[in-house]
Amino acid sequence: MTEPHPLDRPVWNALHAGWADRLDRAGRAVRLAPEYGPFAAAPDMLPDTLRDLATLVDAGEEAWLVEKNEPPANLGDLKILRSAVCVQMWAPSIDATPPAFDIVELGEADAGAMRALADLTKPGPFRRLTHRLGRFVGVRDAGQLVAMAGERMRLDGYVEVSGVCTHPAHRGRGYAGGLMRQVAGRILAEGETPFLHAYDHNAGALALYETLGFRRRATFSLTVVTR
Q: Is the distance from CB of 82 to CB of 196 less than 8 angstroms?
């Protein structure tokens, strides 16, 4: 029998690899510590496992499940808030065109500005400590952070490109593509493969990612649950 590919269960495998030092566990279920992000996973959706998963989710709090198959309609104590279809892409190579603007490394001192930009542009879940999940780069204009991109999930041999966003007043300047080239190019140079997730209805983003060298790999179900 062929072994499943690590990217077939990205959250589960990230929680047992790059995120293993910042997870919460209940029985067979695991989740990323909430201050880093809302992602959770379990080995199956059996009733006992669902009870474990529910204990990791506080009342009114969200947990995000990213799986190739949709979860069952009955999740026990968990309730589905919303769901979406995501496309997973990966890049065996990347367009190395140099950017026409200066890129800066971002760090702890930039945490507040990064969170503010993410809150404004909604690139995906970005919590108080999300910036510590990987390396981030950005673009500043007159000292203001106006664009950024970085890393999120880390599996054996694979690193996710994430947190890609640009301030609405600064779009159309190629910042997203240039920053993604920087992030993905560094991942490739270190012998790993960059990948990402995007909503399947975001045709503009998917087209941009393809011009950079990303190729569609699989379709996933994103399910947001609460207790």
A: no
- Give how many domains the chain has, as a whole number: 2
Domain end residue (candidates: 58, 88, 118): 88
- Whether residues 182 and 104 share a domain: the answer is yes
The three state secondary structure string of 113-148 is: HHHHHHHHHCCCCCCCCHHHHCCEEEEEECCEEEEE
1 lies in some domain: no
Percent helix, percent strand, percent coil in the chain, to nearest 5: 30, 35, 35
Domain hosting residue 194, numbered range: 92-219
Per-residue pLDDT tens digits of the chain, which is 227 residues long: 578 899 999 999 999 999 999 999 999 999 999 999 999 999 999 999 999 999 999 998 999 999 999 999 899 999 999 999 999 999 999 998 899 999 999 999 999 999 999 999 999 999 999 999 999 999 999 999 999 999 999 999 999 999 999 999 999 999 999 999 999 999 999 999 999 999 999 999 999 999 999 999 999 999 999 99
What count of Cα atoms within 13 Å lies in the side-chain half-sphere of residue 12?
A: 16
Output the pTM of the full model. 0.95
Query: Which of 35, 65, 88 is the endpoint of a domain?
Result: 88
Let me know whether 78 and 101 are in one domain. no
